[in-house]
Amino acid sequence: MKNHALPRLDKDDKMRQRLLPFCRLGPGEIWSDPDRGHRVGCVDATNSQHILQLMDGQVAKLAIQDPPYNLVAFATQTIADFIAWCRDWIRTTNAALDANSSLYVWLGADQNEGFQPLPDFMLMMREFKEFQSRSLLTMRNQRGYGTQKNWMAIRQECLYYTKGDPSFDVQYTDIPKVLRGYYKEQNGKKTENMERSKSKNIRSGNVWVDVQQVFYRMEENVNGCYAQKPLKAIERLVLASSNKGDGVIDFFGHSGTTLLACDRLDRRCFIADIDPIYCEIAIRRLERWRKFGKLGWQNSNPFEKELQLGMRCEV
Protein backbone atom coordinates (compact mmCIF):
# COMPACT_ATOMS: atom_id res chain seq x y z
CA MET A 1 0.00 0.00 0.00
CA LYS A 2 1.38 3.39 -0.95
CA ASN A 3 1.85 5.91 1.81
CA HIS A 4 2.53 9.42 0.51
CA ALA A 5 1.71 11.28 3.70
CA LEU A 6 2.27 14.98 4.21
CA PRO A 7 3.77 16.41 7.39
CA ARG A 8 1.75 18.80 9.54
CA LEU A 9 1.45 21.74 7.19
CA ASP A 10 1.20 24.28 10.00
CA LYS A 11 4.70 23.32 11.17
CA ASP A 12 6.70 22.38 8.08
CA ASP A 13 7.67 25.64 6.36
CA LYS A 14 9.82 23.90 3.75
CA MET A 15 6.87 21.81 2.56
CA ARG A 16 4.60 24.86 2.63
CA GLN A 17 6.93 26.70 0.25
CA ARG A 18 6.79 23.74 -2.13
CA LEU A 19 2.97 23.67 -2.10
CA LEU A 20 2.13 27.38 -2.35
CA PRO A 21 2.81 27.61 -6.14
CA PHE A 22 0.09 25.00 -6.71
CA CYS A 23 -2.60 27.01 -4.89
CA ARG A 24 -5.11 28.75 -7.14
CA LEU A 25 -6.06 31.35 -4.48
CA GLY A 26 -3.94 34.07 -2.96
CA PRO A 27 -4.79 36.28 0.03
CA GLY A 28 -8.10 38.08 -0.52
CA GLU A 29 -9.13 35.95 -3.49
CA ILE A 30 -12.32 33.88 -3.78
CA TRP A 31 -13.15 30.79 -5.82
CA SER A 32 -16.76 30.38 -6.94
CA ASP A 33 -17.96 26.87 -7.70
CA PRO A 34 -19.54 26.89 -11.18
CA ASP A 35 -21.74 23.85 -10.47
CA ARG A 36 -23.47 24.52 -7.14
CA GLY A 37 -22.50 28.04 -6.12
CA HIS A 38 -20.21 27.21 -3.21
CA ARG A 39 -17.66 29.92 -2.44
CA VAL A 40 -14.17 29.39 -1.04
CA GLY A 41 -12.31 32.45 0.17
CA CYS A 42 -8.69 32.90 1.15
CA VAL A 43 -9.76 35.57 3.61
CA ASP A 44 -9.42 36.65 7.22
CA ALA A 45 -12.36 35.55 9.41
CA THR A 46 -12.09 38.77 11.44
CA ASN A 47 -12.15 41.12 8.45
CA SER A 48 -15.73 42.30 7.86
CA GLN A 49 -14.99 43.44 4.29
CA HIS A 50 -13.47 40.07 3.42
CA ILE A 51 -16.51 38.25 4.77
CA LEU A 52 -18.90 40.56 2.93
CA GLN A 53 -17.07 39.71 -0.27
CA LEU A 54 -17.24 36.01 0.52
CA MET A 55 -20.99 36.10 1.25
CA ASP A 56 -21.74 38.07 -1.94
CA GLY A 57 -24.96 39.53 -0.55
CA GLN A 58 -26.20 36.22 0.92
CA VAL A 59 -26.88 35.20 4.52
CA ALA A 60 -26.59 31.73 6.02
CA LYS A 61 -28.88 29.65 8.19
CA LEU A 62 -26.03 27.78 9.85
CA ALA A 63 -22.47 28.47 10.98
CA ILE A 64 -20.04 25.71 11.94
CA GLN A 65 -16.84 27.26 13.25
CA ASP A 66 -13.75 25.27 14.21
CA PRO A 67 -11.11 27.86 15.11
CA PRO A 68 -7.56 26.83 16.04
CA TYR A 69 -7.99 26.54 19.79
CA ASN A 70 -4.89 24.69 20.90
CA LEU A 71 -3.18 27.42 22.91
CA VAL A 72 0.18 25.78 22.27
CA ALA A 73 -0.22 26.99 18.68
CA PHE A 74 -0.43 30.54 20.05
CA ALA A 75 2.75 30.50 22.08
CA THR A 76 3.05 34.29 21.99
CA GLN A 77 -0.64 34.92 22.59
CA THR A 78 -2.37 35.31 25.94
CA ILE A 79 -5.83 33.92 26.58
CA ALA A 80 -7.09 37.52 26.62
CA ASP A 81 -5.68 38.05 23.12
CA PHE A 82 -7.20 34.80 21.95
CA ILE A 83 -10.65 35.76 23.25
CA ALA A 84 -10.34 39.23 21.68
CA TRP A 85 -9.62 37.53 18.37
CA CYS A 86 -12.64 35.25 18.86
CA ARG A 87 -14.83 38.27 19.58
CA ASP A 88 -13.90 39.69 16.18
CA TRP A 89 -14.83 36.58 14.17
CA ILE A 90 -18.03 36.10 16.16
CA ARG A 91 -19.00 39.62 15.01
CA THR A 92 -18.41 38.73 11.36
CA THR A 93 -20.22 35.43 11.84
CA ASN A 94 -23.20 37.23 13.35
CA ALA A 95 -23.37 39.62 10.42
CA ALA A 96 -23.31 36.73 7.94
CA LEU A 97 -26.15 34.81 9.62
CA ASP A 98 -29.88 35.04 9.03
CA ALA A 99 -32.15 36.43 11.78
CA ASN A 100 -33.18 32.81 12.45
CA SER A 101 -30.05 30.68 12.41
CA SER A 102 -27.77 28.33 14.33
CA LEU A 103 -24.14 28.55 15.42
CA TYR A 104 -21.86 25.67 16.41
CA VAL A 105 -18.36 26.33 17.72
CA TRP A 106 -15.85 23.54 18.27
CA LEU A 107 -13.67 24.67 21.16
CA GLY A 108 -11.33 22.83 23.50
CA ALA A 109 -11.04 22.74 27.27
CA ASP A 110 -7.41 22.03 28.09
CA GLN A 111 -7.37 20.35 31.49
CA ASN A 112 -3.75 21.39 31.94
CA GLU A 113 -4.50 25.08 31.29
CA GLY A 114 -7.46 25.85 33.55
CA PHE A 115 -9.82 24.28 30.97
CA GLN A 116 -9.13 27.20 28.63
CA PRO A 117 -10.16 28.56 26.23
CA LEU A 118 -13.68 27.16 26.75
CA PRO A 119 -14.71 29.03 29.94
CA ASP A 120 -13.52 32.47 28.82
CA PHE A 121 -15.09 31.97 25.40
CA MET A 122 -18.43 31.09 27.00
CA LEU A 123 -18.27 34.24 29.11
CA MET A 124 -17.41 36.32 26.05
CA MET A 125 -20.44 34.95 24.19
CA ARG A 126 -22.71 36.56 26.80
CA GLU A 127 -21.85 39.88 25.19
CA PHE A 128 -23.73 38.83 22.05
CA LYS A 129 -27.35 39.06 23.13
CA GLU A 130 -28.55 37.80 19.74
CA PHE A 131 -27.24 34.32 20.53
CA GLN A 132 -28.93 32.02 23.03
CA SER A 133 -26.96 29.11 24.49
CA ARG A 134 -28.64 25.78 23.72
CA SER A 135 -26.30 22.90 24.41
CA LEU A 136 -22.74 21.74 25.01
CA LEU A 137 -21.94 18.77 22.79
CA THR A 138 -19.20 16.32 23.65
CA MET A 139 -17.68 14.04 21.00
CA ARG A 140 -15.67 11.08 22.22
CA ASN A 141 -12.26 10.45 20.68
CA GLN A 142 -11.02 6.88 20.33
CA ARG A 143 -7.57 8.05 21.35
CA GLY A 144 -6.65 10.44 24.09
CA TYR A 145 -3.84 11.87 26.15
CA GLY A 146 -3.06 11.85 29.82
CA THR A 147 -0.83 10.48 32.54
CA GLN A 148 -1.19 7.78 35.18
CA LYS A 149 -2.21 10.52 37.63
CA ASN A 150 -5.21 11.92 35.77
CA TRP A 151 -8.24 10.85 33.74
CA MET A 152 -7.42 10.39 30.07
CA ALA A 153 -8.74 13.26 27.92
CA ILE A 154 -10.80 11.70 25.13
CA ARG A 155 -13.34 14.37 24.25
CA GLN A 156 -13.94 17.37 22.03
CA GLU A 157 -16.46 20.07 22.92
CA CYS A 158 -18.86 21.89 20.62
CA LEU A 159 -21.00 24.81 21.78
CA TYR A 160 -24.47 25.19 20.25
CA TYR A 161 -26.15 28.60 20.06
CA THR A 162 -29.23 29.83 18.24
CA LYS A 163 -30.23 33.21 16.89
CA GLY A 164 -33.96 33.93 16.63
CA ASP A 165 -36.05 30.81 16.06
CA PRO A 166 -34.27 28.46 13.63
CA SER A 167 -35.43 24.99 12.64
CA PHE A 168 -34.04 21.87 14.29
CA ASP A 169 -34.48 18.30 13.08
CA VAL A 170 -33.89 15.47 15.53
CA GLN A 171 -31.09 13.13 14.44
CA TYR A 172 -30.66 9.44 15.19
CA THR A 173 -27.48 7.44 15.61
CA ASP A 174 -26.57 4.06 14.15
CA ILE A 175 -26.86 2.54 17.63
CA PRO A 176 -29.91 0.23 17.91
CA LYS A 177 -32.23 0.47 20.92
CA VAL A 178 -31.86 -2.64 23.05
CA LEU A 179 -33.07 -1.58 26.51
CA ARG A 180 -36.74 -1.92 27.26
CA GLY A 181 -38.61 -0.11 30.01
CA TYR A 182 -39.44 3.55 30.64
CA TYR A 183 -43.18 2.92 31.00
CA LYS A 184 -45.66 5.77 31.03
CA GLU A 185 -49.37 6.20 30.45
CA GLN A 186 -50.33 7.48 27.02
CA ASN A 187 -53.96 7.96 25.93
CA GLY A 188 -55.12 5.87 28.85
CA LYS A 189 -52.77 3.01 28.00
CA LYS A 190 -49.54 2.05 29.75
CA THR A 191 -46.87 2.04 27.03
CA GLU A 192 -43.24 1.05 26.94
CA ASN A 193 -40.57 3.23 25.36
CA MET A 194 -40.10 0.97 22.32
CA GLU A 195 -43.81 1.38 21.47
CA ARG A 196 -43.54 5.15 21.60
CA SER A 197 -40.32 5.30 19.63
CA LYS A 198 -40.01 7.05 16.28
CA SER A 199 -36.92 5.03 15.41
CA LYS A 200 -35.32 1.67 16.15
CA ASN A 201 -32.08 3.54 16.82
CA ILE A 202 -31.01 5.72 19.72
CA ARG A 203 -31.63 9.43 19.29
CA SER A 204 -28.48 11.51 19.11
CA GLY A 205 -27.96 13.48 22.32
CA ASN A 206 -25.26 15.91 23.36
CA VAL A 207 -22.73 13.13 24.07
CA TRP A 208 -21.54 11.44 20.88
CA VAL A 209 -19.91 8.03 21.14
CA ASP A 210 -20.76 6.78 17.65
CA VAL A 211 -18.50 9.01 15.55
CA GLN A 212 -15.12 7.64 14.48
CA GLN A 213 -12.15 9.93 14.98
CA VAL A 214 -10.33 10.50 11.69
CA PHE A 215 -7.02 8.67 11.34
CA TYR A 216 -4.75 7.69 8.48
CA ARG A 217 -6.47 4.41 7.56
CA MET A 218 -9.80 6.10 6.87
CA GLU A 219 -10.77 7.08 3.34
CA GLU A 220 -11.72 10.61 4.46
CA ASN A 221 -8.28 11.25 5.95
CA VAL A 222 -6.55 14.34 4.56
CA ASN A 223 -2.81 14.19 5.17
CA GLY A 224 -1.23 17.38 6.47
CA CYS A 225 -4.42 18.57 8.21
CA TYR A 226 -3.85 18.30 11.94
CA ALA A 227 -7.36 19.04 13.26
CA GLN A 228 -9.71 17.31 10.82
CA LYS A 229 -13.28 16.83 12.03
CA PRO A 230 -15.14 13.63 11.07
CA LEU A 231 -17.50 14.06 8.13
CA LYS A 232 -20.21 12.21 10.07
CA ALA A 233 -20.08 14.80 12.86
CA ILE A 234 -20.35 17.77 10.50
CA GLU A 235 -23.11 16.16 8.47
CA ARG A 236 -25.08 15.58 11.67
CA LEU A 237 -24.94 19.30 12.46
CA VAL A 238 -25.87 20.25 8.90
CA LEU A 239 -28.86 17.89 8.88
CA ALA A 240 -30.08 19.01 12.30
CA SER A 241 -29.82 22.76 11.81
CA SER A 242 -30.37 23.52 8.12
CA ASN A 243 -32.57 22.55 5.20
CA LYS A 244 -31.79 21.78 1.58
CA GLY A 245 -30.77 24.90 -0.29
CA ASP A 246 -29.73 26.79 2.86
CA GLY A 247 -26.43 28.62 3.17
CA VAL A 248 -23.80 27.28 5.59
CA ILE A 249 -20.68 29.17 6.67
CA ASP A 250 -17.33 27.96 7.96
CA PHE A 251 -14.57 30.55 8.37
CA PHE A 252 -11.85 28.05 9.39
CA GLY A 253 -12.13 25.63 6.50
CA HIS A 254 -8.95 23.59 7.10
CA SER A 255 -9.53 20.20 5.43
CA GLY A 256 -12.79 21.27 3.74
CA THR A 257 -15.10 18.92 5.63
CA THR A 258 -17.97 21.44 5.86
CA LEU A 259 -17.71 22.11 2.12
CA LEU A 260 -17.87 18.39 1.36
CA ALA A 261 -20.80 17.87 3.74
CA CYS A 262 -22.76 20.70 2.13
CA ASP A 263 -22.17 19.37 -1.37
CA ARG A 264 -23.33 15.89 -0.34
CA LEU A 265 -26.41 17.25 1.47
CA ASP A 266 -27.50 19.92 -1.06
CA ARG A 267 -26.59 23.05 0.91
CA ARG A 268 -24.63 26.04 -0.35
CA CYS A 269 -21.33 26.50 1.48
CA PHE A 270 -19.39 29.71 2.13
CA ILE A 271 -16.07 28.52 3.45
CA ALA A 272 -12.91 30.46 4.24
CA ASP A 273 -9.38 29.96 5.44
CA ILE A 274 -6.62 32.52 5.77
CA ASP A 275 -4.14 29.96 4.46
CA PRO A 276 -4.00 29.43 0.64
CA ILE A 277 -2.90 25.82 1.11
CA TYR A 278 -5.98 24.82 3.10
CA CYS A 279 -8.20 26.64 0.62
CA GLU A 280 -6.65 24.61 -2.18
CA ILE A 281 -7.07 21.38 -0.20
CA ALA A 282 -10.77 22.15 0.33
CA ILE A 283 -11.34 22.78 -3.39
CA ARG A 284 -9.39 19.67 -4.41
CA ARG A 285 -11.32 17.57 -1.91
CA LEU A 286 -14.60 18.73 -3.42
CA GLU A 287 -13.35 18.03 -6.94
CA ARG A 288 -12.09 14.58 -5.91
CA TRP A 289 -15.48 13.73 -4.39
CA ARG A 290 -17.30 14.75 -7.55
CA LYS A 291 -14.93 12.97 -9.93
CA PHE A 292 -14.15 9.76 -8.02
CA GLY A 293 -16.66 9.58 -5.16
CA LYS A 294 -13.77 9.62 -2.67
CA LEU A 295 -14.05 11.40 0.68
CA GLY A 296 -10.33 12.07 1.12
CA TRP A 297 -6.92 10.65 0.28
CA GLN A 298 -6.25 8.04 2.97
CA ASN A 299 -2.58 7.12 2.35
CA SER A 300 -2.08 9.61 -0.46
CA ASN A 301 -2.36 13.42 -0.33
CA PRO A 302 -3.94 16.30 -2.29
CA PHE A 303 -0.64 17.29 -3.91
CA GLU A 304 0.71 13.83 -4.73
CA LYS A 305 1.11 14.37 -8.48
CA GLU A 306 2.85 17.73 -8.14
CA LEU A 307 5.21 16.48 -5.45
CA GLN A 308 6.11 13.35 -7.39
CA LEU A 309 6.79 15.43 -10.50
CA GLY A 310 8.98 17.74 -8.44
CA MET A 311 10.95 14.78 -7.11
CA ARG A 312 11.53 13.46 -10.64
CA CYS A 313 12.68 16.92 -11.80
CA GLU A 314 15.14 17.15 -8.90
CA VAL A 315 16.62 13.80 -9.91
What this model shows, in words?
This protein has 315 residues and is of the alpha/beta class. It has a single domain (13-168, 204-314), classed as Rossmann fold (3-Layer(aba) Sandwich). 30% of the residues lie in helices and 24% in strands. It is built from nine helices and 15 strands. It has helices spanning 13-19, 48-55, 79-96, 118-125, 193-196, 231-241, 257-265, 276-292, 304-314; strands spanning 30-32, 39-41, 60-65, 97-106, 109-110, 116-117, 131-145, 153-163, 172-176, 184-186, 189-191, 201-203, 207-208, 247-250, 268-272. It has a nine-stranded mixed beta sheet with strand order 1-2-15-14-3-4-8-7-13, sandwiched between helices. A two-stranded antiparallel sheet has the order 5-6. Helix 7 (257-265) links the parallel strand 14 and strand 15 (268-272). It is globular, with a radius of gyration of 21 Å.
What does this entry show, briefly?
The chain is α/β, with parallel strands linked by helices. Helix content is 30%, strand content 24%.
Q: Topology of this protein?
A:
Blueprint: H1 13-19, E1 30-32, E2 39-41, H2 48-55, E3 60-65, H3 79-96, E4 97-106, E5 109-110, E6 116-117, H4 118-125, E7 131-145, E8 153-163, E9 172-176, E10 184-186, E11 189-191, H5 193-196, E12 201-203, E13 207-208, H6 231-241, E14 247-250, H7 257-265, E15 268-272, H8 276-292, H9 304-314
Parallel strand pairs: 2-15, 3-4, 3-14, 7-13, 14-15
Antiparallel strand pairs: 1-2, 4-8, 5-6, 7-8, 9-12, 10-11
